[in-house]
Amino acid sequence: MSMVRDLSLADEGALKIEFAGRRMPVLQALTERFAETKPFVGHRIAGCLHVTTETANMCKALVAGGAEMALCASNPLSTKDDVAASIQRDIGAEVFAIYGCDRDTFYKQVQGTLAVKPTIVIDDGADLTSTIHNDYTELLGDIVGGTEVTSTGVLRIRNMSNAGVLRYPVFPTNDAATKHLFDNRYGTGQNTIDGILRATNMLLAGSTFVVVGYGWCGRGVAMRARGMGARVIVTEVDPVRALEAVLDGLQVMPIAEAAELGDFFVTVTGNRDAVTLEHMQRMKDGAVIANSGHFDVEIAVEALRGAAVGRRELRPNCVEYRLPNGRAVVLLAEGRLVGQSAAEAHPAEVMDMTFATQSMAVQYLVSNGKKMEPGVHPIPREIENEVATAKLDAYGVRIDELSEGQHQYLNDWRVGT
C-alpha cells in the first residue's frame, strides 16, 4: 500500500518529470534500450532515493526494462510530493514518500518499500541496506546485489563490509568518475548555492564563505561561492585536501578560527560535529549555517536548540536562534541537505550521468550478481566509459582515438629512453 500525500498532484509532477527527462539524453537512450531488451523481467527493485524528477526518470528506465519497483525517500525534506504522485500513477512504481514526515514515518516508508521483497537494492545513504541487514534478514537470500549512490552511504557500506556483515555485492556508484566528478562537484556546488539563496535571498558577493570539508562536494561549493564573488575559507582535517585548497588559491585554517570570520558556513564532510555549539557561539551575529552532507549530523543542531534562548522562523527553511551571548545564528533547512531541502536537488544534466551509471550497474548485477562475492566492488570501467561517451555525443563533442601503434606502446615495456 503506497504512501503519497495526494495523487491529484500527479499532473503537475508529470510535467516536471518530462521537463527533466528532456535534459537526460543518456538515461533516455537507456530507457529505450531497456524497453526493447527487458533485462529486469522477474526482478524486484527496492529504491531509497531522493524523490525528485531526476529519480523519476531512472524509475521510468528500470520499469521500462521490466522491473517491479518500490521507492521510498532517502530524506524527508527532499521529497517532491507532486513527483511522488506521478511516479505512483504514471510510471507504475509503488511509492512510499511524503514531504516533511517525522522519523517514525520515514522508517515506515522504508519498511513499506521492502514489502516488494527485492532482488536488487538501490540505496542513497544506506538506510535501506542497513535496515535489511538489521531487521529483514529473511530477504537476504533473494537479493543478488545493490548499489549505493552517495559518499556517506558508501562509507557505511564499506564499514559493513569491513565488519564482515554485508551479505551481497554492492557497487559504490559514488566512486565512479561519472558520478563524483560531475554530480558531487557541479551538482552539489550549484544546488547548495541555490538552496542558500532561496532560503535567505542574501548577497554572496563580498561575503566570507566558509566551506567545511574539501572533498568533491566541497570543491564544488567553494568553486561556485567564489564565482559568486565570495571570499572563500576552507577548513579540513585531511592534509592533502587542505594543501589542494591552498594551491587552488583558497584560505585554509581551523574551523575554530574561521568561526569568527565567516558570514556563511556550509558543511560537506560526511562526518558528525563538523560545526559544534562552541563554534556557533564564536560566530558573528547573523551568521548563516547550512549543511550539504547527506545526514543532519554535521551541525550540532540539537545542542544549538538546547542552548538557544530564542527562536524565530524568518523565512521558509530559515530559522534564527538567539544564543545567551546575545548573538544569533541562522540555521537553514533544519541542518539537512540544503540543496535538496530548500532548492530542487541536482540539475538533470548531471544526474543523467549518475542515474545512467546506476542503471547500467543494476543491469550488470542482474547478469553477474550471483557470481560475485559479498562486499564492495568497483563499477566496471566499461560502464563509466560508455556513459561518458554517450554524454559527449549528446553535447556534440568528438574526441580522438588511439592508433594501433599507441595501443601497442601502452601495452609494452621494452620501449624506453
Structure in words:
- With 417 residues, this protein is an alpha/beta fold.
- The chain folds into two domains: 223 residues, Rossmann fold (3-Layer(aba) Sandwich), CATH 3.40.50.1480; 156 residues, Rossmann fold, CATH 3.40.50.
- Helix content is 45%, strand content 16%.
- It has 17 helices and 15 strands.
- It has an eight-stranded mixed β-sheet, with helices on one face. A seven-stranded parallel β-sheet has the order 3-2-1-4-5-6-15, with helices on both faces.
- Strand 13 and strand 14 form a beta hairpin.
- Helix 2 packs parallel to helix 3.
- The longest helix is centred in the middle third of the chain and has 24 residues.
- The chain is globular.
- The termini are far apart.
- The mean pLDDT is 96.
- It catalyses: S-adenosyl-L-homocysteine + H2O = L-homocysteine + adenosine.
- It comes from Longimycelium tulufanense.
- One of its GO terms (biological process) is S-adenosylmethionine cycle.
- Its EC number is 3.13.2.1.
- GO terms for molecular function: adenosylhomocysteinase activity.
Notable characteristics:
417 residues, alpha/beta, Rossmann fold, eight-stranded mixed β-sheet, seven-stranded parallel β-sheet, 15 strands, 45% helix, one-carbon metabolism
Itemize the secondary structure elements and their pairings.
Layout: H1 10-21, H2 25-37, E1 44-49, H3 53-64, E2 68-73, H4 81-91, E3 94-96, H5 103-113, E4 120-123, H6 127-135, E5 145-148, H7 151-162, E6 169-172, H8 177-200, E7 208-212, H9 216-227, E8 231-235, H10 239-247, E9 251-252, H11 255-258, E10 264-267, H12 277-281, E11 287-291, H13 301-307, E12 310-315, E13 318-322, E14 328-332, H14 338-341, H15 348-368, E15 375-376, H16 381-395, H17 404-410
